[in-house]
Amino acid sequence: SLRKRAEEALIASQLRRSLHVEQTPLAVIEWNLDSQVTEWNPAAEKIFGFTKAEALGRHPFGFIVPESIKREVDKVWEGLMAKKGETSSTNENITKNRKTIICEWYNTPLVDKDGRVIGVASLAQDITERINAEQKLLTHQEQLRSLSSELLLAEEMERHRIATLLHDDIGQALALSKMKLGRLKQLGMSQEAAEELNEIHDITEQMVEETRSLTYDLSPPILYELGLEAVIEWLSEQNEQKYGITTEFITERGVEPSDESLRVLLFQATRELLFNIVKHSLAKKAKI
Predict the structure, then answer these.
(1) pTM of the model
(2) Helix, strand, or coil here: 103?
(3) Which range scores top for mean pLDDT: 25-29, 147-151, 153-157, 180-184?
(4) Contact criterion met (CB below 8 Å) for 109 and 77
(5) What's the chain's Rg over C-alpha atoms?
(6) Going by DSSP bridges, is the β-strand pair 117-126/246-248 parallel, antiparallel, or unpaired?
(7) CB neighbours (10 Å) of residue 181?
(8) Which of 38, 68, 216, 267 is the most buried (most CB within 10 A)?
(9) What span, in angstroms and rounded, lies between the C-alpha atoms of 240 and 197?
């Protein structure tokens, strides 16, 4: 009969639901209107450590939910009772051996055939390992960023040391040699000696210019003498003069970083970005 077939279909549906509840890797927990456990599947036993017999009839607080989040859970429960829809959240939970774990929760109200709320169904998944792995990854990334910054600063300090050596020792020695050669040119000497002297003077002058240029390429003294804004203005002018890319520098005055390490890192980042524009783009304009 039709009634018998309907009953068989209902039994089959209940069996299928029971099978799903038993086999799913998610904790399936049902609560009645008094927020007592009425369903507790094997996955819930595995995640929280309590057997079904131990869990049935228990309230969540002090059981698997810490008292510290009672207010938040109460708000979720009120929303479910008012049929405001499903909710999802990530919470700290407690296992039988009092270990703290982190679970993702999905909650939905259970209603009868007349649409009245008769309880709540919850699905929970232990994501503690995933959260810990993500935290470790973030920590490693932060350590790598810190190490990268330290390496960049060490590199800049070495550049600055070499640039200072070029400027203070080699550059000044070459400039002095150029001055002495200029004086020698004023002394009477043979045509051949004068020509040789002129050639040496020109070579020395070229070396002075190349040393000055190399000093700026290695570590512009402007960064240390006048600050970040001045050196970026200089970078902008160099970018325009050397590569023909119109480079506009816009800044709010008075935002000069007080920390020298930060100034160095910002300078290096700006220089690298400008170099990438020159190397990889066909841009005719750039803005900093």
Answers:
(1) 0.51
(2) strand
(3) 25-29
(4) no
(5) 38
(6) unpaired
(7) 17
(8) 267
(9) 37
Residue 47 CB neighbours (<10 A): 22
Q: Where is average pLDDT lowest: 48-52, 245-249, 254-258?
A: 254-258
Q: Helices (DSSP H) in the chain: which residue ranges? A: 2-23, 42-48, 52-55, 70-81, 128-165, 172-186, 191-218, 221-225, 228-243, 260-280
Is-contact 249 233, C-beta < 8 A?
yes
Q: How far apart are CA 253 and CA 248, in angstroms?
A: 15
Q: Do the Cβ atoms of 241 and 276 come closer than 8 Å?
A: no
Question: How far is the first Cα of the chain from the last one, in angstroms, to the nearest whole number?
Answer: 82
Task: Give the residue from 50, 31, 47 showing the smallest Cα distance to 39.
Answer: 31
Per-residue pLDDT tens digits for 172-194: 777 788 787 777 777 777 777 77
